[in-house]
Model the fold of this input.
Amino acid sequence: MESAAPSAVTVAIDGPSGTGKSSTSKAVAAKLGLRYLDTGAQYRAITWWMITNGIDTDDPQAIALAAGKPAIVSGTDPSAPTITVDGQDASGPIRTQEVTSKVSAVSAVPEVRALITDLQRSIAAEAAEAGGIVVEGRDIGTTVLPDADLKIFLTASAEARAARRSGELRGKEAADLAATKEALVKRDAADSGRKTSPLAKAGDAVEVDTTELTLDQVIECVVTLVEERRSK
Ligand SMILES: Nc1ncnc2c1ncn2[C@@H]1O[C@H](COP(=O)(O)OP(=O)(O)O)[C@@H](O)[C@H]1O
Ligand SMILES: Nc1ccn([C@H]2C[C@H](O)[C@@H](COP(=O)(O)OP(=O)(O)O)O2)c(=O)n1
Done:
């Protein structure tokens, strides 16, 4: 007897910066034939648009008024994810230090979250028709997709996360380890402390501490969890 195609699965992966969400989610999606959505890239894209259009990122009202203007489109192929703003490739500009330093303020504005959350839900619903998706961010398991089939919350010590991040920055915008750690802890605090859907572990999420794990071990662990979920 031929085995049936695996059922569609929606996976939510949340956690603070540098825990391995993007690398893990992309690899798991590629291995299992799922789509992939980086929700942080969407918040970065809207932040980049605000900066380039002269919107004061310290003014929540100005941000709320402008939030509906940019058209943000995410490509969900895990081997080549894309992000455009008004048709323009934004994958490079959204990774600058300037965007990183302002994204928490912009993403805390409720009007921004409402628009981006709607966009994320429609992408996930469309992907569910095509096998499923891994969606990574801060509030996916708690707010965006509370009915996800599997929820993972990645953690790691601030030291490990800063070391991973400063490894990425070396040679580009050289930041020392202490400064990287300080910026990262500050962003975590802002993301966890905001009123509207803060960074938080969902009650039914599986927590995976990646501090002492290699990336391959984390990927293997999540693949196993998805397969277990699918076989139920
Ligand atoms: N378990 C791990 N061990 C070592 N390095 C890792 C691990 N997971 C991720 N990394 C590296 O850490 C950096 C940040 O990972 P990333 O997936 O972007 O994290 P996040 O999306 O949670 O911010 C990347 O350079 C990635 O290769
Ligand atoms: N679901 C999400 C995803 C990201 N955000 C916000 C908060 C984060 O600090 C920024 C950037 O997220 P991103 O995942 O790109 O951050 P890092 O990869 O950890 O540097 O976006 C959010 O508020 N909700």
About this structure: The mean pLDDT is 94. The beta strands are 9-14, 35-38, 72-75, 82-85, 88-89, 132-137, 150-155, 206-209. Residues 15, 17-23, 164, 168, 210, 213-215, 218 surround adenosine-5'-diphosphate (ligand 1) (CB under 6 Å). The CA atoms of residues 76 and 173 lie 28 Å apart.
